[in-house]
Structures are given as structure tokens and as C-alpha cells.
Amino acid sequence: MPPKPCLRACANASPARPDAMDFVVTTLLNALTLISILMLVGLGLAISFGLMNVTNLAHGEFVTVGAFAVYFVQSIGGSFWLGLAAAPIAGAVVGCILEFAIIRHLYSRPVSTVLATWGVSLILQQGLELTFGLGAKPVTPPIEGTFDLFFTVYPAYRLILIAIAMVTLLGVVLLISRTSFGLDIRTVIQNREMAEGVGINTRRTYAIAFTFGAAIAGLAGGLVAPLAIVLPQMGVNYLANAFFVVIVGGVGSIGGLVAGSVFVGGLTSVLNYQISPSLAQAIVLLAAIVAVRLRPNGLFNGAAR
Amino acid sequence: MIARDRNWLLVFAVCVGLTIVYPFIADGYQLTVIRDALIFGLFAASLDFFWGRTGILCFGHAAFFGIGGYIMALVTLNDAIPFASLLGMMGAVTGAAFVAAIIGYFLFFGGIRGSYFTIVTLAMGVICQQAAVSWSSVTGGDSGLIGIPPIEFDVGGTHLDLSQDLPSYIFVSAIVAVVVLALWSISRGRWGTVLTAIQDNEVRAAALGHNAPLRLLVTFVLSAAIAGLAGALYVCMAGLVAPDLSGLLLSTEVIVWVAVGGRGTLLGPVLGAIFIQRAQQTISSFNPSLWPLLLGCVFVVIVFVLPDGILSIYARLKALLKGRRRAS
């Protein structure tokens, strides 16, 4: 397996002014960058794993597909923003095919889902490698330069990333709480039989929710592409972390998703200053295992499902 | 003795017979190929002992393989330690069992089962590989450790040197045969029955007085210990240890070996490991990046076409013939 610099790359921007306030603000913003990405990746997983009870090990590949979409659009001369628009579409297409071809046949066989989605993940990785060739793919950010935030100067693109992630998350919250489709999803989650009884097409709802989660993960991949090292194997880094976001935070609420992302992302960013990134990731995952033991229902339990 | 047990012993005897005959028809290189495949077969059997009996999928079993391998490497590379091979193997088994005991305690007594267990063990594999890469002063980092000596024993005055092909082949085959037979007798007895009860309905099994978390924990620890033993054997035969040995790819390959061979049969996974390793070597010699692609396809095909492994083809054919006879 290749080395894992992606999380470090998106967690650490080099501090410019070495004073204490600057350090704190930079660390906070680095953490916020990582937390934003984890929230977007975890969102799709919270839908499939947390709500539909589908263990999708190909979820990391949605991120990869999104990042490659940006690379592909840029390589044929398109702008970054065009690529960023293509990223969620690419994620959605792959997610939709996956749901249609495999996952919907295996809702009652959880172990089989694990095996089949892992197989799909390997196929997608090798497919991307055969199509685009070996080695890391360059993706240029839309804006170079930094932004003066009074306490510190910070790369402008990262601030945009955080903003887009927050707006997306807010949009999802509104979609689920305010629209009739959101109502359908909540109904199906609470009681599938009853939802069918009142005339909701549960298969369709599941399919749309799954595709939607894949699209958000694709968007996350597109956003992270200029910061990370774009490789066919990059998805697995996000996979384990995103699962822990969902498990640690608690299944089935946006609050849990935020809590889990803050736990995993915050800890990773802080540790990355002290020790090597692989050791930092190992420690974060260990801490997550302990957290799961102590709070089996998630950090944010008591939240409305 | 019921018919299923008799069939199993029959297949086991045939396999042992083939293993004994093989050195007479194969050259040294072919022997080492089968020897290494048998070690991975032992690893697959260890996963099957847990997954097949409890129905809980461990997605990071290579972590124990790697831990065993690294402990063996560190002990045998240290000149100050006497009886290095023996102590190394004991250390590998104990080390893997110890790690499994800690992780298993957190998970089983925390009520974590099913998909959650799979995800946590997946992370465990990632952690082990990361630790092996980043703790480079001990593990040698990305490049691992090389120059691990072959196994040597002094048993009752006679010196046993396993640097040659044939002795090491015999040694490995004997260990695999003994361990598989032992695991089989454990899992067909009372222990296995209780595990099946827990798999079917844990609450009911607990109500009947069985300490379900403890049973699962002990099974997991035993399974990890054997994986550690397989890792220790492997590094001595290969002469090197690298972070890949605890990586996700190996963790998933072992799942395929078990799934192809037939989960819960113990013998099937060993055969599955040997067949798939041979296939892997043949395919990788054409194009190395083709193998993961095919591996992915195998995962998908197994789930849809052969959920019970290749050994189930025979049972299916029999059922098909029976059905046809009845129809005609």
C-alpha cells in the first residue's frame, strides 16, 4: 500500500507567524479543514451505515472518484470549479450503479455486503489505475495565495473549502428536516414496513438516499483534491476515519456526525504537530475504539433519531 | 460418528496423503511454493475458526499475522537470545493472543458485534500497518527487516535444521495438519455447539447460562494465536518481514481464501488459500496490477454465485441430480 500523506496534507498548513495566538488560530483552522472533509465523507456513511444498516466498504472510493473527476476536468482544460461540479455527479453515478447492481440485492445479508462492496472498491481502484496510470495526479487549487485573518494568514483555498462544506451540511440539514423527500427518508428509517404501508416507495427512497450520500462524498473528494495526493488508493484513508466518525459520534443524527468529526478530525490535527502522521492516525483510531467501548451509543446519544 | 464428520475426516486423510506423496514428485522449488501456501492456509484456517464458528467477520486478521511475524523477526535477529526459534514462536503466539485479548475484551464485553466489529477490526489492521511503518527504529519502517534466519531446534540431542526445502516442508505440513485437526475437534465438540448457539441467538444462549462474551473472546484469542504462529512461520521461511504482512490487502485476501474454500469447513480455507495463491502467481506473472482487479471480481462473484464456497459445488450438484431424478 502507498504511504498515507493525504490526511497530513489536508490537516497541516505551515504556520507563517510563530507566535502563540497565530499557532492556536492556525491549529484551529487546520482542524476545521479536516473536520469539514470528515463531515462530508461521514454524511454519506451515516446514511448508508447508520440508517440503512449497509456496511459499504466502497465509500472511500466515492471520495477518490470525486478527486479524479476534478483532475480529469482540469487535464482536459476545464476550470477547477467545473471539476468541482463534476465531482458530486461522478460520485452519484458510481453510487447509483453500485446500489442498483449490488447493494439492493443484499439488504438482508450484511456480511455479503461487506465482501461485495470491498470487491467493488478493489475493482474501482484498479480501474482508475489502469485508466489514468500510476502515480499521484496533480490538481491545482482555483486560488493561490493567502488571506489575512488578523491573527494569522491562512491559505485562501482552505477557507473556501470550509465555507463550501458548511453550506453543504446546512443544505442537507434543511433537506432532511424541511422537504417532503426528507420526511420520506425519516419515515423509512424509523419504520420500513409502516412507511411502505403509507405508500412510500422504500426501495426508491433507499436508492436516492444512497446516491445522495455518494454524491456528497464525491464533493468531499473534489474539495480535498488540491490539498491531498490524488491516488487511486486514497479512499481507504478516509474510509476508516469516516466509519469512526459515524460510530464514535453515534448513529443517526447530524449532531452525532458533527461530534464524531470533531473528535476524529480535531485529535488528528493536534497530534499531527507532535508526532508522525501514521502514528497520529494509529493513536486516533485507538482512541476511537476506547471511546466506542465507553460510550457504545455514541458521544452524542440522546439525540432525536 | 455422523456422516458429515466421516466425510470431513475422509477429505482430511486424502489431503494428508497428497501432502506426503507430493515431495516424491515435486522438485525443491515447487515444495517451497506449496510450503508457503500451506502457511497461508494455516492463517486462513485461523480466521475460519473464528468467522466460521461465530459468524462475526474480522476484517483485520492480518494484524495478528503481522504481529507474530514481527515478534519472530525481532527475537531471532537478536543474538543475545538463546533457543531463538522456539522462544520466537512462543513469543509470536503469545503476542498475537495478548493483543487479541485486549481488543477482544473491549469489543465483546462492550457489546460490539456484527458490522461494528468488522469496522473496528478493519481499523485495527490499519493501525498495525501504520505502527509498523512509523516505528522504524524497531520495525525497520517501510522496508521492514531482512535476514531472518531459518528455524532451528535442538530436540533431545538431535539438531533440527529447517534451512533445507524438504525438512521445512515436512515441519510446516505437520504443524498445519495438527492445528487443523485440533481446531476441527474443538469446533465439532461442545465448544462449537455453544458458539453456534450464540451465533443463532446470543440472548437465549446467555439465558441458558453461557457466558457469551467470554466464549467469543477465547475463540478470538485462539484464532489470533494461530494467525500469529502462521506469521512467525512465514517470516522464517521468507527471511524477511514487511508492513504489508499486517496490511489491509492481506486481511482481505485471507477473507477470500476462506470464502472461496467454504466458511466453517476449516479444511476448505486451507485448500482455498493454496489454489488462489497459485492463481495469483500465474496471473501476476502476466500483469501485476491485474491481480487486485480479479480479486475484486472474485469477491463480488462469490457473494452472488457461491455463497458457501467451492466445496458447496459438490453438494449443489448432488441436490440438482436428486431433484432431476425425482422430477423424471
Quickly describe the structure.
Chain A is mostly helical and 305 residues long.
Mean pLDDT of chain B: 86
Class per helix and strand makeup of chain B: mainly alpha
Stretches of chain B where pLDDT is under 50 for at least 5 consecutive residues are none
Q: Tally the helices of chain A: what do you get?
A: 12
CATH topology of chain A: ABC transporter involved in vitamin B12 uptake, BtuC
Number of helices of chain B: 14
Shape of chain B: globular
Strand order of the largest sheet of chain A: 1-2
Number of domains of chain A: 1
Identify the overall geometry of chain A. globular
Query: Helical content of chain A, roughly?
Result: over 70%
Describe the biggest sheet of chain A? 2 strands, antiparallel
Would you give the CATH topology of chain B?
Answer: ABC transporter involved in vitamin B12 uptake, BtuC
* N-to-C SSE string of chain A, H for helix and E for strand: HHHHHEEHHHHHHH
Name of the level-1 CATH class of chain B? Mainly Alpha
How many individual domains of chain B? 1
Count of extended strands of chain B: 4
Q: Name the quaternary structure.
A: heterodimer
Q: Largest protein interface?
A: A-B, 47 and 48 residues
